[in-house]
Amino acid sequence: MRYSLLKILTEGLTGNRGWQPVWREPEPETAYDVVIVGAGGHGLATAYYLAKEFGITNVAVLEKGWLGSGNIGRNTTIIRSNYLLPGNEPFYEFSMKLWEDLEQDFNYNAMVSQRGVLNLGHSDAQRDAFARRGNAMRLAGADAVLLDTEAVREMCPFLDFDNARFPIKGGLWQPRGGTVRHDAVAWGYARGADSRGVDIIQNCEVTGFQIENGICRGVETTRGKIRARKVAVCVAGSSGRVMAKAGMRLPIESHVLQAFVSEGLKPVIPGVITFGAGHFYVSQSDKGGLVFGGDLDGYNSYAQRGNLPVVEDVCEGGMAIMPMIGRARLLRMWGGIMDMSMDGSPFIDKTHIGGLYFNGGWCYGGFKATPASGFCYAHLLARDEPHPTAAAYRLDRFRRGAMIDEKGQGAQPNLH
Length: 416
Ligand SMILES: Cc1cc2nc3c(=O)[nH]c(=O)nc-3n(C[C@H](O)[C@H](O)[C@H](O)COP(=O)(O)OP(=O)(O)OC[C@H]3O[C@@H](n4cnc5c(N)ncnc54)[C@H](O)[C@@H]3O)c2cc1C
Prior knowledge:
CATH topology of the largest domain: FAD/NAD(P)-binding domain
Shape: globular
Bound molecules: flavin-adenine dinucleotide
């Protein structure tokens, strides 16, 4: 399906009966050059960049449910590149640059909205840490502004600045951060990949790997066996379960993360705001709903729903920085499965099994990484060497003592 002004006008005048499905529903072939497991944001972006940037189009993306049924359609849509460590910041800034051109690139409205991300600081030590992070961001070519209390007050007068426990002492502001319509990202990448010849096969669960003499030759699925020269796993919260079928145990735990949306309100939140003393973040959708979230549920789970103690905890965080949120009615909430790695950073790497590749460990920050993750995974699959911005995301980094512990919290996956 291609779009143009003429097409919109014609369809508008003829009852909108000529629109075609945005991607095909092909039957699986018996063999492909590359099989990607998982049609989430990262799998679809990988297929798109494989076809567009590296000319590899004999590709299938296999999805056990429907396209976008995982975290790509469940996240709170925040994009930012406000990282500290050299293993992370250039990668996330690369992603930010890809976001900035994405809609023109795949000719699809993904509602990329650079309305800014504000991290609130509540102590002198936190202000110093923000200054350090902001400098690291600027050294990597990103944008960062250190704000004092008055500058934050001007931007967000409704915050509780004099809360006795969490007074607001300033903030770190990234103007180029913001939000993107998450489903549209999946649809745009799917359309772009499909139009270049990639087969996107829904309702096709990968149930095993065909491993012969240490080399992966294909996958077993609920729709039969499919051979492949390369198999690229990209299943986010299901990483542990899927890689176990290849006999691998990953440095990843799966946890539930919940998200919440209020009733529609008049515009009040200028961008994304995060609470610096607890775990709470909020933005406002174009429809007016306050979109917010907080901590993981804290126990290991593969369920896509959470429990009430975290609802209470998230609401407490919201009330601590903006008590007016207590007047808003909650409209809906849901959960997604997070692939929490031991140091909070992801993996884009080959495995010890020939022809089998792995992308995962995105914790609760993988949406913003979608374009760069797809690009770098495609680069690895096409050239068999890591993209320079993703060179640190190796599976053996724990054995080598080369962790990328962005938050300095150690091997505590539920805290990253
Ligand atoms: C509530 C919530 C809020 C979040 N907020 C943010 C945010 O604001 N900003 C941010 O950057 N990140 C956020 N995230 C994290 C982000 O959504 C994820 O890190 C990212 O989407 C994961 O990559 P993905 O899109 O490829 O995953 P998914 O969309 O989960 O894709 C994986 C796919 O693999 C499929 N699959 C699994 N097993 C198999 C199998 N055996 N065979 C075939 N297919 C299989 C699944 O069905 C799924 O469709 C949030 C996540 C949640 C749940």
